[in-house]
Amino acid sequence: MTDLAIETHALSRRFGAQAAVAGIDLAVPRGSVFGFLGPNGSGKTTTIRMLLGLVEPTSGESLVLGESMPRGWRSVLPRVGALVEGPAFLPYLSGAANLSRFDAADRDGERRTRRDRVESALARVGLSHAAGKPVKAYSLGMKQRLGLANAMLRPRELLVLDEPTNGLDPQGTREVRNLIRSFAADGTTVFVSSHLLVEVEQLCSHAAVMSAGSIVAQGTLHDLHGADATTVVVRTPDAEAAQRVLREAGLDPTAVPLDGGDQRITAAIDQSTVDADGLVSALVAAGVRVRGFALDEPTLEDRFVALTGEGFDVVA
Amino acid sequence: MSSPKPALHTPRRLVGLDLLISELAVLFRRRRTIAMLASIALIPILLAVAVALSSAVLEPGQGPPFLDRVTQNGLFVGFTAMVVGIPLFLPLTVGVVAGDTIAGEAAHGTLRYLLVAPAGRIRLLLVKYAGTVAWALAATTTLMLSGAVIGSILFPVGPVTLLSGDVIAVPEAVLRILLVALYVSVSLMGLSAIGLFISTLTDVPVGAMAATVVVPIVSQILDALPQLAWMHPYLLTHYWLGFSDILRNPIEWSSFGSNAVLQLAYIVIFGSLAYGRFATKSILS
Asked: How many angstroms separate the CA of residue B279 from the nearest CA in chain A?
């Protein structure tokens, strides 16, 4: 049995001449909270639609929960909860009626337990008070929460959430993050697409970055951060001495003068070979007046921009 | 979930009627559906009131079929109303319901959620089609019963003289009324299949509705051109007015049969087209 909840091989989808998704190999481990990053138009949603059997791939294959999609939809999809490209409901039905309808659409949705499951899903997203109101009276945030309630109507092995915090206020966003964490704690694999990097940094154990139809990076969040690209930053008036110490430690420092006579010395550091803690004592022992010492890890945003390019014109 | 975790795999059901029940409940609780039913009920009422208020006595055969008999027997109101309703108004309502089936879900974005639920594409098509058939039955029955009720209020009711000259008692006449409703419902089933197919082609329900309504209008125009006589037996609307054969004794079933076969052919053709289109369609809405 595979330990991957989602696995794709050279999955591609063309729309006319445009390759929306150009041969991606996704590997989403079971039990992970997997961030699916990428600028707008990079192919995230098309990928999600292929995983859920809404769009057939032009070529390549995808396995969801160990079964081929779209062929295996009948046994795969009941185990998957999804929020795809925003929530959608019949506006003239109440929130609870909409959830019941989607549950009835699944042959395996138990009628006996439906009312209870709808009620508890609504309670879980804090919509009990609005259960009987027509959805057209809902705010965007309430619709988003109703969409999440729909994804959790039944116990799921995999949740596919496309931009789950879209349109939510800060409290709502926090609540959604807590919900996602609680799912993950239950062992549910959560596949979250987002362009909010902070969200991914706070939530996810793994991530993939998509750009112009291809996956440009994939792995644990730690890998993606580029832990090997850490820089040591020293602020001191004794630049010469400091650089000498760093060079002796095997680093390649560069110094930039700052206002007020101090210099900012930076050097890439591989923490697996150089003991960063030892550097401070070495500097102090050499009489360097250390006014600042930091290990700078690149933010995910830096990595993201480095991988996907600057500006709006990223789908060239 | 703090409670003990329920089993992830529930036993698989083969059919699952809940979707059909839910579809019918949503359709018939919808304000638009209720408004359409109300306006259908209004056709015989307007007709009967107009006849009751006018002093003019029609010569036999004058005006729409059966209209001359209405003042003598209220049970004819429904038949007359059906003659008035079938060319345009009833197909219009079928166009609205059938055109909305898939395109309406697509426009609301709910189609993707039904499919990932998963409803199953073929099952969803069948349920949507069953919904339009249920609509046709409800619409024609409402029209006929509304006609019988208003007719019995405004005019005398008694044994009905049929087109063949025979006389049938009131209970038998009520049965004939329901048979006419059935005949017209069958007449509308081919159109429902055409509407379902058109609805799979677009995400704009109004477009699908309009396109569906155009079909019976064109068909009736073609049916009126004697130069195209060879084509007439194959036209969707060719037997639509044949329900008057229900009013003979014994009932002339041949038009019912020909109509049923013709409608079945339309259902098979456009049902297959709808399936072919929808089974692999990319759902991008």
From this structure: 10
